[in-house]
Amino acid sequence: QVQLVESGGGLVQAGGSLRLSCAASGSIFSLNAMSWYRQAPGKQRELVAAITSGGSTNYADSVKGRFTISRDNRKNTVYLKMNSLKPEDTAVYYCYAHIRTMKPLGTGDYWGQGTQVTVSS
């Protein structure tokens, strides 16, 4: 019943910026931890950035200082602002959320479908 819908991916030149959005919808009571992961071709999925319900953030070393994760609890949305993009940032980006639902009452892990980010050199 809960769905994460991503947007904002695309093709950008090195040095450019993109802003990814992931909006959760459905029978949501609250959003707990939210994260962005990415998976490059031939690579394992890796954590890019995470944000707790209290707003604490954590970033992979490779993106620290360039990416910013944020959330808007009213909109049930998590964002990933990506600046100074590099070709090595090319990957499918996935959002994740641990969500407490209302109907039925409970919690669960939810993933977006992924959005392609391609950074050209």
Summarize the structure in words:
With 121 residues, the chain is mostly beta strands. The chain contains no helices and eleven strands. It has strands spanning 3-7, 10-13, 18-25, 28-39, 46-51, 57-59, 67-72, 77-82, 91-101, 106-111, 115-120. The strands form two sheets. Strands 2, 4, 5, 6, 9, 10 and 11 form a seven-stranded mixed sheet that branches. A four-stranded antiparallel sheet has the order 1-3-8-7, with no helix packed on it. A hairpin with a 4-residue loop joins strand 9 and strand 10. The radius of gyration is 14 Å and the shape is elongated. The relative contact order is 0.33. The mean pLDDT is 95.
Short overview:
With 121 residues, the protein is mostly beta strands. It has strands at 3-7, 10-13, 18-25, 28-39, 46-51, 57-59, 67-72, 77-82, 91-101, 106-111, 115-120.
Tally of separate helices: 0
Structural class comes to mainly beta
Shape label: elongated
Largest sheet: 7 strands, mixed
Overall radius of gyration:
14 Å
The pLDDT mean sits at 95
In percent, how helical is the residue content? Answer: under 10%
Q: Hey, roughly how much beta strand do the residues contain?
A: over 45%
Element-level helix/strand string: EEEEEEEEEEE
Uncertain segments are none
**β-strand number:** 11
Straight-line distance between termini: 40 Å
